[in-house]
Amino acid sequence: MTLVQEFEDRFGHAPIGVWAAPGRVNVIGEHTDYNDGFVLPFAIDRATSVAASVREDSTVRVSSTFSDSGEVIVSDLDELSAGDVDGWAAYPVGVLWALRQAGHQLKGMDLLIDSQVPVGAGLSSSAAIECAVAVAANELYELGLSGSELALIGQRAENEMVGAPTGVMDQSASLLGKVGHAVFLDCRSQHAELVPLPLQENGLALLVIDTRVSHSHATGGYAARRRACEIGADVMGVRALRDLSEDDLEEASGLLDDETFRRVRHVVTENARVQAAVELLHAEGPQAIAPLLDASHVSMRDDFEISCAELDLAVESSRKAGALGSRMTGGGFGGSAIALVQVEDIDRVSSAVTAAFAEAGFTEPAIFAVSPAEGAGRVS
Ligand code: ADP
Ligand code: MG
User: Fold this and answer.
1) Whose CA is closest to atom 2 on ligand 1?
2) Fewer CB within 10 Å, N or C, the chain?
3) Is 345's pLDDT higher than 90?
4) Number of independent structural domains in the chain
5) Whose CA is nearest to atom 16 of ligand 1?
6) Does the C-beta of 71 come closer than 6 Å to ligand 1?
7) Does residue 104 sit in the same domain as residue 223?
8) Does the CB atom of residue 53 touch ligand 1 within 6 A?
């Protein structure tokens, strides 16, 4: 059954159209977003689609092909407050709620979601849903909002309706991405710039190695890292760690305890690596950023301490098998690593990583290539 047929089945009428928004992978720039720093994600060639129609009342009905039962979750936009919607429906409903909170006029919608973005692999299936719904509502209610404005709406939905304290990177990548490009985002000004990332043209591919593990300290670890960054910025007398450069690290080492210093050093050097990566992409092309990926991983493993045995093994085994550069990506304590590889080495690297995981007694990883794709928009 097509998505349109499925929509008719579940809602009893046809949708007006179908919109889609991609997931994203972050090339470099980890834990820099909430420090007002730089990130370099790209929109991937796996997207979430939403079939949508408008309603005359304030009701939102959402359903997902995720659930075979055809369950439809109903809420009333007039009655909603932050945090009111539980479970996955908080993402789509949260977007419509956030649009209203921002002062936009809209009535209800019927929405059917169908996603090709794997959940919890660090590819932002959550932002893909938000952005697909955001572009659908933007067009159907003629709101005229830009990609950057819609990104903030998606972030607000995730922060306030879902209750996840995330930055604006994921939504920016999903909305602003372009084929063959990464999105260089300044998380302070929200200024975004497209940077060429011609992987295929250079015989390269970016592999995602999803370790399929999520360690229990992920949530507490994330909060603790954020706190350490705030303390570091406070002691150094800056608004955010973004305002420190590598030249400030010597002073920081004298003022901060060893652990806080290493947290700060990761953020400061990671921001520098993102900027260096952007320059290298312009000047030399994608292959040139490989050493920065390696350095980023070491920094997250040793200074920020958010890696884990599975991520370290993904990085080490892929590099040993010929990957040019490799690092963990995402929040840490599980999730995915990425490896920059030559196209002819994809199979060799994939089998070597799979074998290394088997030998270590780890869950078999999911390994697949992603490429920089077009951001969110209407598909039919
Ligand atoms: P990530 O964004 O890294 O994939 P998150 O925890 O931020 O992980 O978001 C995953 C959540 O998004 C899921 O737990 C679910 O609530 C929602 N989600 C993802 N894909 C779908 C889908 N196809 N249908 C319904 N909800 C989905
Ligand atoms: Mg997410």
Assistant:
1) 124
2) N
3) yes
4) 2
5) 88
6) no
7) no
8) no
Residue closest by Cα to atom 11 of ligand 1: 126
Residue nearest to atom 17 of ligand 1 (CA): 88
Sheet holding 334-342, edge to edge: 325-329, 334-342, 204-214, 366-370
- Is 170 a known active-site residue? yes
Distance 79 CA to ligand 2 centre (A): 26
**208 CA distance to ligand 2 middle (Å):** 16
On whether both 160 and 252 belong to a single domain, the answer is: no
Residues 211 and 150 in one domain: no
Task: Quote the tokens at residue 376.
Answer: 């969110």
Residue 266's domain is classified under what CATH number? 3.30.70.890
Q: Are residues 170 and 277 in the same domain?
A: no
Residue 314 · residue 211 · CB < 8 Å: yes
Please give the Cα distance from 49 to 129 (Å, whole number). Answer: 8
Taking a C-beta distance cutoff of 8 angstroms, is the pair 151, 135 a contact? no
20 and 138 share one domain: yes
If we measure between CA atoms, which residue out of 246, 200, 228 comes closest to residue 342?
A: 200
Q: Would you say residue 122 has pLDDT above 90?
A: no
Same domain, 221 and 176: no
Distance 23 CA to ligand 1 centre (A): 11
Residue 56's CATH number = 3.30.230.10
Q: From ligand 1's centre to the CA of 21, what distance in Å?
A: 13
Tell me the pLDDT tens digit for each residue of 304-314: 999 999 999 99
Using one digit for the tens of pLDDT, what is the confidence trace for 37-94?
A: 999 999 999 999 999 999 999 999 999 999 878 899 999 999 999 999 999 999 999 9
Query: Is 211 touching ligand 1 by the criterion CB < 6 Å?
Result: no
Candidates 33, 110, 170, 345; catalytic one: 170
Residues 208 and 117 grouped into a single domain: no
Q: Has residue 150 got a pLDDT over 80?
A: yes
Q: Return the C-alpha torsion angle 258, 262, 264, 265, nearest 10.
A: 130
Residue pair 209/334 in contact by the 8 Å Cβ criterion: no
Q: Give the residue numbers spanning the domain of 84.
A: 3-196+374-378
